[in-house]
Amino acid sequence: MTTLKSKLHDDLNAAIKERDELRSSTLRLTLTAITKEEVAGKEKRELSDDEVLKVITKEAKKRREAAEAFAQGGRTESAEREKAEGELLATYLPKQMSDEELERIVAQAVQEAKAAGAEGPRAMGAVMKIVNPKVVGQAEGGRVAAVVKRLLAG
Q1: Which residues are CB-contacts of 19 (< 8 A; sequence separation ≥ 6)?
Q2: Are residues 90 and 28 in contact, defined by beta-carbon separation less than 8 angstroms?
Q3: Hey, CA dihedral for 61, 45, 91, 144, is it positive or negative?
Q4: Are 113 and 130 in contact (CB under 8 A)?
Q5: Which of 8, 10, 11 is nearest to 35 (CA)?
Q6: Number of helices and strands (H, E) in the chain?
Q7: Contact status, residue 55 vs residue 34, Cβ threshold 8 Å
Q8: Label partner for 13 (CA 20 to 30 A): which of 29, 61, 108, 119?
């Protein structure tokens, strides 16, 4: 069975052979982030595919935020580069959930939380606890939180 990490390594080697600078540098940085995570604890360990996905998600988010910052700063070329790196990383992530799908799951969770007696600001945490495991890797936290807030206010 091929792990996600070994797939990244294979893709990096292919990118180097093809002289694909964008892919090779993006994958190199991502593999470095994965290695950093593996040696972060008390002892070195191999990350599971789920953990590797978390690292890739974090890296992709960094690229999106950097692209926005560069775009606002008028640095179009840097923004494009960051955006391209983010899109490349996104190809390794599970397909993102549609807004309709996310809204349906959140609406269900809001009903569950309210039925369990969660109200007001406390309801937010209760709803997030129900929603998060269902959307892990398929919808970003900020996006989820925005929908939860909107539906709770609704």
Answers
A1: none
A2: no
A3: negative
A4: yes
A5: 8
A6: 7, 0
A7: yes
A8: 61
Count CB neighbours of 18 within 10 A.
10
Top mean pLDDT of 21-35, 48-62, 111-125, 129-143 is at: 21-35
Q: 73-116, pLDDT tens digit by residue?
A: 999 999 999 999 999 998 998 888 888 998 999 999 988 888 88
d(CA 148, CA 134): 14
Pairwise CA distance, residues 79 & 146, whole Å: 25
State the residue for tokens 């180097």: 16
Question: What angle, rounded to 10 degrees, do the helices at 4-17 and 49-72 form?
Answer: 50
CA dihedral 36, 39, 42, 45 (to 10 degrees): 130
The pair of three-digit structure tokens given for residue 114, joined into one six-digit string? 């309210």
